[in-house]
Amino acid sequence: MTEQKLDIKKYINHQNQKLFDELSSVYNIELYLDPSMNSWGIDNNEPIIRTPKDDLNIASFTHELLHLYLDYQGLTSKEHIYYEIFNIHVLMSINRAMLFDHIYNVSCHKKIYPIFHNLGFQDKDFVQNNGFFFKRRDYLIIKTCRSLNIMSKLWISQFIGHFFALKNDIIESHEQYNRKYLYKLAKLDKRLYQIIYNFDTKWTKQTDLDCCENYLELSNDLFRWLKENNKIKK
Questions:
Q1: Which pLDDT does position 151 carry in this prediction?
Q2: Is residue 155 very low, low, confident or very high in pLDDT (cuts 50, 70, 90)?
Q3: Per residue, what are the HEC states of the chain?
Q4: Which residues pair with 32 in a beta bridge?
């Protein structure tokens, strides 16, 4: 089945009308049904939103509008950070494509969730998969690989990725569970944990959306850590 353009007006209500009107004054926003998608998403550098189901999920539609809103407000682009800022040796030492996209997406969520909440949506509707995504087996894989000094790219990427997911999970009922595993990760590698914790904390406090310096500092700190621990991939 090919993609099909949907009537975007069905996804606009009193909660997102003002947001949509503001963005529509700048962008020609389009909505497509795309069964090849696993979840809702928005095209890179294009005001095109895609959904796997025409299910009138206004919360998910608004979530994607808010990603566009960050672009509208001047958020540094993912492509600029990836190609112009991050150290190539750092990118080669992690599962770069998937992990970098994850870090950038979660960092965006940190900025758009307060707006989403203020529009009257519930925390459980912010992301589509809101279950417990980090299990004990995931922690044991990281711990075992690190202890045996094997599969460095895997465990480092898993460590960083799960930190960002746990630290930025906005579901209130998950807080105690997430704290437990963040504590365990911190004990596994205090320095690596501190590097990504500092990045997350500074971005939380920052009010403007120019994140070049944030990612440059993260890249430099990760490079030093990788070099000190003989993890640089060439």
A1: 92
A2: very high
A3: CCCEECCHHHHCCCCCHHHHHHHHCCCCCEEEECCCCCCCEECCCCCEEEECCCCCCHHHHHHHHHHHHHHHCCCCCHHHHHHHHCCHHHHHCCCHHHHHHHHHHHHHHHHHHHHHHHCCCCHHHCCCCCCCCCCHHHHHHHHHHHHHCCCHHHHHHHHHHHHHHHHCCCCHHHHHHHHHHHHHHHHHCHHHHHHHHHHHHHHHHCCCCCCHHHHHHHHHHHHHHHHHCCCCCC
A4: 5, 50
